[in-house]
Design goal:
The complex is a heterodimer of chains A (315) and B (625).
Chain A: E1 5-16, E2 26-38, E3 43-47, H1 54-61, E4 69-74, E5 77-79, H2 84-88, E6 91-94, H3 108-120, H4 124-137, H5 154-167, E7 172-176, H6 184-201, E8 204-209, H7 212-218, E9 221-226, E10 229-235, H8 236-239, H9 246-254, H10 291-295, E11 301-304, E12 307-309
Parallel strand pairs in A: 3-8, 3-9, 6-7, 7-8
Antiparallel strand pairs in A: 1-2, 1-4, 4-5, 9-10, 10-12, 11-12
Chain B: H1 2-10, H2 12-30, H3 67-103, H4 105-120, H5 123-134, H6 138-165, H7 168-175, H8 180-216, H9 228-235, H10 244-271, H11 273-276, E1 288-289, E2 303-314, E3 317-329, E4 334-338, H12 345-352, E5 361-370, E6 373-374, H13 380-386, E7 391-394, H14 398-401, H15 408-419, H16 424-437, H17 443-446, H18 456-468, E8 474-478, H19 486-503, E9 506-511, H20 514-520, E10 523-528, E11 531-537, H21 538-543, H22 548-556, H23 595-599, E12 605-607, E13 610-612, H24 621-624
Parallel strand pairs in B: 1-5, 4-9, 4-10, 7-8, 8-9
Antiparallel strand pairs in B: 2-3, 2-5, 5-6, 10-11, 11-13, 12-13
The chains are: A alpha/beta (315), B alpha/beta (625).
Chain lengths: 315, 625
């Protein structure tokens, strides 16, 4: 069976200091060429800190950002033209900030009708039936349909966002930090809803988050991004429990945890994206870094079984 | 709409403008029906009749034409031309602005530079040039005035559109299969319309004036047609001998433009969302205090918050954000205040130094004692002397708390010099030392950096350095690591922990993260709906939570290493603080709630350090053993 989503050398560069004519002053590599594959029905967790390229990856996967290189295959069909309408029927996006992803001047029904009308050309009666079905699935009361977005709490608004993504009948959802704007008690409600929907409708998720514990709880496999590259990839139960890349270990150790001493974290921060180091991007912060790490970029390679790491000296 | 009118008329001047304008517009509309002399009827025998003359209430002009009739017909024409020009300018300007703002990139650049070029000419010169090309006449004057005002609309609307075009709902519309034209009309335009209305209402008067100006110069309406500008122009020669011929159209222009401008300002204020929230004025320097009674003094603790009540009074609603919170802080102690958004934890922290914005915030009860002295209701000078000196704050987002236009060294030096009379060089030396203390590499160079040049973690270090500037006894940290990445968060937490141990600082740490509390705090207080529901030593509270809310909240937090699983959730939502249920605020979501929970007040009970606000607490460690 072909994977639900597959990227082939997908990369994104931004031009920095653009001029009216002539070439830009600098290029910023938001995402280095990346190959990822997600099987149907699987949840791939994507973890990374701000500036690691996870949101750029997500926007490319749904066609909101044209890739600079490489292409995306969705359910076996290559989509290399950035056209959200073409992507929309197969893959949908759930935004981080539920409130700003809903137009404040439209009712919930108008918001949910848009994908049915413009992606599927459904008639009025069919739209009504479909919206009722989806709205029930995300456990919201039908009277909410006539209200405006500002009347909803964050958790409710996020369910509406999920309902909109489902309305497009896409079987693959890219969830970009879907619960980071929510309080913990509500976060669990939304995560459980996502798990139920996945089981009911046979969905495939790409779950992007900076919260390691949340990603671990929902994912089958996890990819760790650092500075625009996948540095480690493997089964969810092993990536944080037995990390092979020093960065993954730093992440896992830094997560504040009840019953663990304050770690302190290694000093140092991300390298300057406009002046990237020639070798491994993590070398400057890595306790194990050698001359080789500073000169040569490590490639993602299998370390043990289906666990991959981009490191010259895996743990 | 009714709310809008109510807001509009709350502004007296705007209301007055609306009434005047309404009268003028009605008169102008009814002019053809009124029993007036024909406006262009010449009667040279009755030249320059004074006002209140027989049959001519406002007198006559140099050709003996009735001024009342001419002023009404003229007003009609001027208003029509002004409105038409404003409408044309708004439609074309908004179209340019929306397209440029939405398309962005090169289209935006080229269009807006074109608009800039148009703006580079003095407006009257440009209007004259346009009329010179098209020839004099009212229609051409209208076109000129509209054209001159297009850049104003285009620039305004473009700025707003850029903000909206990058909102997530526009991306969502693209994913819903909408084309660009449809997104412009159905997603962007409805959000821009208020701005267009505001811009129109504030420029309408200006356009009427410009049209009158062109007519005055003889480039607008042609004789014998009356409009306000041409009437003034014709009366110019008799300014001394028959002043009323200029005064009448002059007064009318004044009335129209004044009433439109007053109304326009009112419309802008009523439509502006920031003003709509009721915060029409700048917040006061310290939170308003309206206490009925002051709790009896006690001298325990370095900082002691007693029965603090802070409310937000918006309209007729009272949002009881903090509802009887008591908390104490000993020297060198770190106390965590944990809760979900809206639980009142930040408002509690801000109330300590009277930093809650007033209006709408009011402290309605309780006391905050620093070394036994009550700070609530203390004179502003005293609060100011203490703020940053003995009690310092660290906020969540240092990018918004640091001034973007000053170097961080200057800001640190200022913070020192506010409380200590030291020279510039000494202040600078201390600023460098502070950066060393918070472990910023290359401090001597970094003091010359602007906030935007630093990373989030470095900025928060500067925020901490700022708080340390005057060697405070207490630091109140309001979610200082929430906006940071985990690896940086760990660094900042470690820094705070080291600083507190080396300097004997007391820290009140506000957060929503149990993991952070567990690693940093000695004691913890859990807040829900404006009250503390449980407090005690951190390890005891986290290991054996006594309040059902604490217990279930902890269960909601996924822990690393737990593998794939279903998470616990608390059904329902916290209550709105303007409509709190009687009894326990958690009762509607609690599966142990009984009748007693929903009626009476539930007190915070327990021994001294370990207290819980629940009638049916969970078994604690001792009971379990």
């Amino acid at each position: 069976m072909s994977p639900a989503v597959q990227t082939h050398g997908l990369a994104c560069r931004f031009e920095f200091g653009r001029r009216l004519f002539g070439p830009p002053r600098a290029l910023l590599h938001a995402l280095h060429p990346t190959d990822l594959a997600v099987a149907p029905g699987e949840t791939l967790g994507i973890v990374g800190e701000s500036g690691c390229g996870k949101s750029t990856l997500a926007r490319m996967l749904v066609g909101l950002q044209p890739p600079s290189e490489g292409f995306i295959e969705i359910e076996g069909a290559a989509l290399n033209r950035a056209d959200p309408a073409e992507f929309g029927r197969r893959i949908q996006y759930v935004f981080q900030d539920p409130v700003s992803s809903l137009n404040p001047r439209k009712t919930i029904r108008e918001i949910l009708e848009a994908p049915l009308r413009y992606l599927h050309g459904m008639g009025r009666a069919a739209r009504r039936a479909r919206i009722d079905e989806i709205f029930g699935a995300v456990r919201l009361r039908p009277e909410f349909l006539t209200r405006y977005p500002h009347e909803f709490s964050g958790g409710q608004a996020q369910r509406i966002g999920i309902a909109r993504a489902l309305a497009a009948s896409a079987r693959i959802l890219v969830l970009d930090e879907p619960v980071s704007a929510l309080d913990v008690s509500v976060q669990a409600q939304v995560l459980n809803l996502l798990a139920d929907l996945k089981a009911e409708w046979g969905l495939t998720y790409l779950f992007i988050s900076h919260d390691l514990a949340v990603v671990e709880a929902v994912s089958d496999r996890i990819a760790v991004l650092y500075f625009g590259s996948v540095v480690e990839q493997g089964p969810a139960e092993r990536v944080f429990a037995a990390p092979r890349h020093p960065y993954t270990r730093l992440l896992a150790d830094s997560a504040p945890q009840v019953g663990r001493k304050l770690g302190g974290g290694a000093a140092g921060e991300l390298p300057d994206p406009l002046d990237p180091p020639p070798g491994c991007a993590f070398a400057g912060r890595c306790p194990l870094a050698t001359e080789r790490c500073r000169a040569e970029r490590p490639l993602l390679r299998p370390v043990e079984g289906d666990q991959f790491a981009a490191c010259h000296h895996p743990l | 709409m009714r709310a809008f009118l109510k807001l509009l008329f709350r502004n007296r001047l705007a209301g007055m403008g609306a009434v005047f304008l309404a009268v003028i517009v009605v008169l102008a509309l009814l002019t053809p029906l009124l029993p007036l002399h024909p406006p262009n009827e010449i009667n040279t025998a009755n030249r320059y009749l004074r006002p209140l003359a027989e049959g001519h209430w406002l007198g006559t002009d140099h050709l003996g034409r009735d001024l009342l009739s001419r002023i009404l017909w003229g007003t009609r024409l001027s208003l029509a031309v002004g409105f038409a020009a404003a409408l044309i300018a708004a439609v074309i300007g908004a179209a340019i602005g929306i397209t440029a703002g939405y398309a962005g990139g090169r289209t935006d650049n080229v269009t807006m530079r074109g608009v800039d070029m148009l703006m580079a000419f003095p407006y009257i010169l440009l209007a004259l040039a346009i009329v010179a090309v098209l020839g004099p006449g009212l229609m051409n004057a209208l076109i000129a005035v509209a054209a001159v005002n297009i850049p104003f609309f285009a620039r305004n609307i473009r700025g707003v559109t850029v903000g909206i075009a990058h909102k997530e709902f526009v991306d969502a519309a693209r994913l819903s299969g909408m084309g660009h034209a449809r997104i412009l009309f159905s997603e962007v335009l409805p959000n821009v319309v208020p701005v267009i209305v505001i811009a129109m209402s504030t420029t309408l008067g200006w356009m009427i004036l410009e049209t009158a100006g062109l007519s005055f110069l003889g480039l607008g309406s042609q004789p014998p047609q009356a409009d306000l500008g041409s009437m003034l122009g014709e009366a110019r020669s008799a300014l001394i001998s028959a002043p009323h011929t200029s005064l009448v159209p002059g007064a009318m222009i004044l009335l129209i433009v004044m009433s439109i401008n007053l109304l326009g300002d009112g419309v802008r204020d009523a439509l502006d969302p920031r003003l709509r929230s009721g915060a029409l004025s700048r917040p006061a320097a310290a939170t308003l205090v309206e206490r009925k009674q002051v709790p009896a003094p006690s001298s325990e603790g370095l900082l002691r918050i007693e029965d603090l009540e802070t409310q937000f009074q918006v309209g007729r609603r009272d949002y009881r954000a903090v509802n009887g919170v008591s908390l104490s802080l000993e020297p060198g102690e770190c106390v965590g205040l944990i809760g979900e958004s809206g639980s009142g934890k930040s408002v509690t922290a801000l109330s300590v130094m009277g930093l809650v914005a007033s209006p709408p915030g009011v402290i309605t009860g309780g006391a905050v004692r620093l070394d036994g002295d009550d700070l609530i209701g203390a004179p502003y000078a005293r609060l100011r002397a203490l703020r940053g000196n003995r009690v310092a704050y660290i906020f969540q987002d240092p990018l918004s708390t640091l001034h973007p236009l000053y170097r961080i060294g200057e800001q640190l030096a200022e913070a020192i010099r506010v409380h200590h009379p030291v020279g510039r060089n000494e202040a600078k030396r201390r600023a460098v030392q502070l950066l060393v203390d918070v472990r910023i590499p290359n401090p001597a160079q970094r003091i010359r950096a602007y906030p935007h040049e630093l990373s989030g973690g470095m900025r928060q270090r500067v925020g901490i350095a700022m708080a340390l500037a005057n060697d405070p006894d207490i630091i109140i940290a309001d979610e200082p690591t929430t906006a940071l990445d985990v690896t940086v968060q760990a660094q900042i937490l470690k820094l705070l922990d080291d600083l507190r141990r080396s300097r004997g600082l007391a820290i009140l740490f506000i957060t929503h993260d149990f993991g952070v509390v567990a690693q940093l705090c000695d004691r913890v207080a859990v807040m829900y709906a404006g009250r503390i529901v449980e407090e005690g030593p951190t390890a005891e509270v986290l290991e054996a939570p006594a309040h059902p809310y604490t217990k279930r909240l902890i269960a909601c937090v996924p822990e690393l290493g737990g593998g794939r699983r279903r998470l616990e959730a608390i059904p329902g939502l916290p209550p709105a603080v303007d409509d709190l249920p009687p009894g326990c605020a958690f009762a509607p979501r609690c599966d142990k709630a009984a009748e007693a929970c929903r009626s009476g007040e539930v007190a915070l009970q327990g021994q001294d350090r370990r207290r819980v606000r629940c009638l049916f607490p969970e078994p604690t460690t001792e009971a379990a053993q």
